[in-house]
Structures are given as C-alpha cells and as structure tokens.
Design brief:
This protein is an alpha+beta fold. The protein folds into two domains: 280 residues, Di-copper center containing domain from catechol oxidase (di-copper center containing domain from catechol oxidase), CATH 1.10.1280; 159 residues, Jelly Rolls. Helices cover 23% and strands 16% of the residues. Strands 3, 4, 5, 6, 7, 8, 9, 10 and 11 form a nine-stranded antiparallel β-sheet that branches. A two-stranded antiparallel ribbon has the order 1-2. Bound molecules: copper (II) ion. The site of copper (II) ion has 4 residues, from helix 5. Keywords: Copper, Metal-binding. InterPro entries: Di-copper_centre_dom_sf (IPR008922), DUF7868 (IPR057190), Tyrosinase/Hemocyanin (IPR050316), Tyrosinase_Cu-bd (IPR002227). This is Tyrosinase family protein. Pfam families: DUF7868 (PF25271), Tyrosinase (PF00264).
C-alpha cells in the first residue's frame, strides 16, 4: 500500500490504474467461494447477511455451504449502526478490506494499491456527485463485463441526485456524544454489541445514510450494501470526514472507556489476507491514530466542511459534553403510522422550557446559557431497507410541503430499517434526531413559533406506502443546554 488514501477524482478519468486494479481484484475475489474469509461475498456478509435474501438474489445457492463464521456471532452481521461504534467498526472494516484487495492486486499485477475515497461533497469539483466513470462502464478495457457495476443500483444511475437534505452540516457539531448520549456527531451509547442500535449519529444520518439511499439497489440495503464496490469508496469518505472532524480544534472526541475498549460483551473481528488465516480482534481505540487499524489521508480539508488544525469554530461551543444536558420538553401523544400520505403530529411543549430555549439559542458570550432544539423520532420501524422521509415543522393548514421550504426541517434516509425492525428480540427500530435550532429561530422571527406546541409533518418520499408503512413510536422535542465557552 502506498502511504495515503487519495480522492478518486484525482486519479485520472475512466480506467485509471487504481480502479482497473480494483476491478481485477474484485473479479478474482468475487470468484472465490463464500467459505473463504477473503472472498468478496464473505466480506460483504460481514456487513449484513440474510440467507433467504441472498438466496433470492442468487448470491448463494440452496446447496451452498454457509460458513459457520457468518452465523455464529463472530464475523457475520457485524456492521454497527445507530451506535457510537458506527465509525470505529467501519474504519477497521475498511482497513481489513483494503489489505485484502491490496494483496490480491499485488498477486495479480505486482502493483501497490490503496483504497481511494469518493469526495461527493467537494463543492469545487463540478463532477463530485458523479460516480467515478469506471463504476458505470459496461465493460473493462478488454471488452469483458465490468465487475465494478455487477450488482444493482438505481436504474441508469450516473450521478447521485440529492434532494434538499444532503450536506456537511454534521461537521458543524462540536461533540461526538452529548450528555446522556441522545445526541451527537458519532451515535448513541451502546456498551454491548448491537448491529443496529437505537440512536443514529449526525454523520451517520447525513451524508452516510443519504448516499446509501441515493445510490440505491444493493447500496440501499444493509444486507447487501457491502457487495457493491462503490460502498468502499463511500465509506472511505465517511471515514475521512470523521478523521477531519477529529483533527479540527474545538471538537470533543469521546474518551469513555466503554467506547475505547468496547463492545463489552463480544469482540469485533476482521479477516486478514491469506487463506483463512486467524482474524484480528479489536476495540475502538485500535482505530485511532497510532492504532493497528489506522490509515492516513492525503487531504482533510477539501469537501469536508472543516479546516483541520485551524481554529475556526462554525458553531458556538456549549461546554464540556459531559456537563451539557439533554431533556425532552414535549412529545406527541401516540405512535404514528405513515403510509402513502403525509401525516401530521401534534406536540405539546413545556412553554417555559420552549421559551427559554428560543431566548438563549443565539447566545455567543462566554459564560452565558445556550440551547439548541432537536426533533427526535424514536423507535422507527418498517420493512423496507432505506425509506426516505421529509420532515416539516408548523406547516400552514393544508399547505403543500414542497411549496413551503422555510418549514422544512430535514430529510431522513432510514437506512437499515429492515434490519433494525427484525423481530428477533435484538432490535427495537431506529432513532433519529434533526437539529431544528435554525428553523425555530426562523419561525420565531416570522412570529410563527408558539411555545405551547409544535406541529410536525412527516412526508413519505420513497419506499413508504400503505402496503409498506413505517411507524414512529414517539416524536419528541429535545432541549440541549450548555454554557458558552
Ligand atoms: Cu454504510
């Protein structure tokens, strides 16, 4: 491997050497049986594995022996989502994958190989939203089928086409985990191993989940996503965004031993190159700088929304994350079901807490109380793999949401909802938060914020219908409080 992971856009158009070698290695690994821990399918199944679905998709046959590694709670179904292990687990997953592909490239061509990243939020690159050409070409230069587009995506996709919610806003968050763990950059506290836990971190929600949904096909289903070769370039960029965030002054990483040494009840494990060589177990701290699963990047500024090393805090610092508090200041009365039509839900607020939130939101002087407001969608469940939901606040009666963009709170790609809703006793649906601080300020300025209540409208956009509805157990408003430092 060469030293630094690079932006795929800087490696040359079409079949540059890195992507041609990637294709050759992928083809060879994809031809290996799933019993090999370095096979393409085994690597994909480590993210998510559902035997019946894989059978339906013709990825395995009825008589394919399924390696015990995939079903005995060691290697299979490990991917961590809705959890503070999301970033560390995926970082080690990338490292292991990159080493296995690099070894195959070496064997086939003698070349070194490093996993590149897809810098889709690089505003200085007009082609940033385009999948690299090599991922959409029908054939390799020699005319044979292109393995990099072997598995399905949205039909005809050449570029991702984001709606309103695709952004680097997560990078403005200053804290990996806040207060009791309901909010933050990196996901909710889960001391134990949970493939899909309950609180989605800001970076995971957007751009991570968003890109999974926008590419679609296998990328839109956590049980299949790891099979699409573009998955790895996407996650490489997510990993780079985390690294950029950690290197920016004013950001507070988690130092809890539960995170550093976790999970508590089960070891994460990754395969290494070689024929079923023993895997390597690890904890989150092994993925940090100096750890055995750490890899550096060529650049942490372009397309990341931050300037590592430069003290330019985008958002007022609310003090030590452990001293900040997060409290619900209102919730709706009952679970809501969303089918093919938008659904309104009414939230009664504690008026004093709501008013004080509004009054302190804009605080910037050190020592002053400061607040932010969030909508929390708790225990969201459904059968589809990545439904898309738009969320609005205080829409005027009967208004067409599309015509009232100033009431738009955000979009949620519910990536992994099918996994998180499995009735296996291990899953409880997924939780999401949307920062509505700026929106509440806009509403206040327009005279449309009533501290006694809020109306939330959930608009189904994709993969939500009367036949395949989603349910939201509770919608609450969270007040995050701190002191400007
Ligand atoms: Cu992912």
């Amino acid at each position: 491997m060469t030293a630094f992971r690079q932006d795929v856009a800087t490696l040359g158009s079409g079949w540059n050497k890195t992507l041609l070698n990637y294709a050759k290695a992928m083809q060879a690994l994809d031809a290996q049986p799933i019993q090999d821990r370095t096979s393409w399918k085994f690597l994909g199944a480590m993210h998510g594995f559902h035997p019946q679905l894989w059978l339906n998709e013709n990825l395995i046959k009825a008589n394919t022996p399924i390696p015990a590694d995939l079903t005995n709670k060691t290697y299979g179904n490990q991917c961590q989502h809705g959890s503070w292990y999301f970033l560390s687990w995926h970082r080690a997953y990338l490292f292991s994958f990159e080493a296995i592909v690099a070894a195959k490239v070496k064997e086939l061509t003698g070349d070194d190989w490093t996993l590149p990243y897809w810098n889709y939020l690089n505003s200085s690159d007009p082609k940033a939203l385009y999948l690299p050409e090599a991922f959409v070409e029908k054939t390799l230069p020699d005319g044979s089928p292109n393995p990099l587009c072997k598995y399905p995506r949205r039909p005809g996709i050449k570029a991702i086409k984001p709606g309103g919610g695709f952004s680097l806003e997560a990078m403005e968050e200053n804290d990996f985990i806040v207060g009791n763990g309901n909010l933050g950059f990196g996901g909710g506290i889960t001391g134990d191993f949970v493939q899909f836990a309950d609180i989605t971190g800001e970076l995971e929600s957007n751009p991570h989940n968003t890109v999974h949904g926008l590419v679609g096909g296998y990328m839109g289903n956590a049980y299949l996503a790891g099979l699409d070769p573009i998955f790895w370039l996407h996650h490489c960029n997510i990993d780079r965004l985390w690294e950029a965030w950690m290197n920016t002054p004013g950001k507070t990483m988690v130092h809890d031993p539960l995170w550093l040494n976790g999970p508590a009840n089960r070891s994460f494990i990754m395969p290494v190159p070689g024929d079923n060589a023993p895997g390597v177990t690890f904890t989150s701290k092994d993925t940090l700088k100096g750890g055995k699963f750490y890899r550096p990047y060529d650049d942490l500024s372009i397309g990341t929304g931050v300037k590592p090393g430069v003290n330019a805090v985008a958002r007022v610092n609310m003090g030590s994350p452990s001293k900040q508090t997060v409290h619900p200041i209102g919730a709706n009365a009952a679970a809501v079901t969303i089918g093919s039509a938008p659904v309104d839900s009414h939230i009664d607020l504690e008026p004093t807490a709501a008013s004080s939130s509004i009054a302190t939101m804009g605080a910037t002087s050190p020592g002053k109380a400061v607040a932010r407001l969030y909508l929390a969608l708790e225990s969201v469940r459904g059968s589809a793999p990545s439904p898309l939901l738009d969320v609005y606040v205080n829409l005027p009666d009967g208004a067409n949401p599309a015509l009232v963009p100033d009431r738009y709170a955000g979009s949620l790609t519910l990536f992994g909802l099918n996994v998180a809703s499995e009735k296996d006793g291990e899953h409880n649906g997924l939780g999401y938060t949307i920062d509505i601080t700026d929106l509440a300020q806009r509403l206040t300025a327009a005279g449309d914020f009533d501290p006694n209540h809020l109306r939330v409208t959930l608009v189904p956009v994709e993969q939500i219908s009367d036949e395949a509805p989603i349910t939201v157990e509770r919608i609450s408003v969270l007040k995050r409080s701190g002191v400007v430092t």
